[in-house]
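Tutorial, part two.
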Amino acid sequence: MERIVVDNDTGIDDALALAYLCSLDHVQIEAVTSTPGNVDVEQVAANNRALLNLCGKPEVPVLIGAREPLEIPLVTTPETHGSQGVGYATLPDPGSGPSASNDAADYWIKAARANPGELTVLLTAPLTNFALALRREPKLPCLLRKVVIMGGAFYYQGNTTPTAEWNTHVDPHAAKEVFAAYTTAAEQGLESEKLPIVCSLDTTERFEMQPEFLTKLAEEAGCDEPELVLASDAEGTLSKASSPLVRYLSDALRFYFEFHRHYDQGYIAHVHDYFAAGVAAGTLDYETRPATIDVETESQLLFGTTIADFRGLWGKPANAHVVSHNDPQAGFEELVRGLGALARKVATDS
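Running the prediction step on this input gives:
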């Protein structure tokens, strides 16, 4: 059983990743902690509660951590993920939830201390909450089983500035603190397998979803009619799929397809966070390279840029494993199977 704590800023691809984890019988989601990023943190938490309810997991605690980045104002992305973070998708207000006011960083520390070596943390948001937890408990790297981070771009075009990836650009000071903490832990003898696995744009952008994916998903889910999301459709066209989960994902992803087209990338969607979720769950194949990572926080030109020393030129121990290879085709086949099964289950249980 994989026991996973998810930290996200839901977010269309965050939602896809969370739904996928809900589909896996061997994964137990211990909690979902919410970080400000794509939308403000209260909206993130509401999105998480609503999606967990839709996926048949209303018992999973949803916690709120930081309200803003460590040192700079929060910048959200309504142009990328919509005003509520999930594109055109809508869900009923799930209410506040019993765990929404708890502090995410404190939860992580208590959970890790109570379950040493058992918890995996999946981070698909800015690293604000994780940095705060590491400040309070420097031994956290030793207490966790595995850490997976979606973020950064190494010698690869950024998606927010020419060199910076979104998550690290939103809170580069937090990312810098996290990697510095793992440098210290490595110097003190932290086992290599406990260093973070970093899924950067270099490999997450290989997970380029085509709209035909939704047609395959609807078929796998047993929908009454084919689900066709076409580039020629009017923007904002809503799904009529008989499956509530397919309808939600289709409406969210249509917005994402349109966003990528607006930025001349084609009618596609880069589903970064799903790949990271597959790494955390152990369902997707990948290869990594050890590296020492740091983050630029001073230069206006390179603010939020991640740098990876793969050759040991800094004379510091590796503080991460950077994913260097993955298999998108197999990954999308796995995603169709998992979400299709979940959609059928949700429809049966409702």
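The first helix runs from residue 12 to 22. In part three we will examine how such features are distributed along the chain.
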